[in-house]
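Exercise 7. Predict the structure of Methylmalonyl-CoA epimerase from Leeuwenhoekiella parthenopeia.
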Amino acid sequence: MEKIEHIGIAVKNLDEANALYEKLFGIPPYKTERVDSEGVNTSFFKMGASKIELLEATNKDSAIAKFLEKRGEGVHHIAYAVTDIKAELKRLKAEGFELINEEPKAGADDKWVAFLHPKSTKGVLIELCQDRE
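Solution. The predicted structure, encoded as tokens:
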């Protein structure tokens, strides 16, 4: 793992959250994107090397909708940048981590993504990200 790629924050209303974070950071999001496969609308803020992803559910069956129902708004996951996501998944599985995704899938912000189950990471949802280029 190279660095923290971003921190994902679940929100009930993306427009309201964008307005709040624009005031907080003094900048607008650099990207908004709908990810139908995950049932979310996202926006990304970047300050230097740090990024924040806001996630809003687009349907009641999405992972974000279930998270919001159970825990409310707040930190949803921490994402780490990797150079070879398939090799990293293989390594982590061999180390005993439980994978939510055995294979990477297309995610927001032009990334390949895969998640580790929080049961195997002391309650933290971990996302691995690799550029899709």
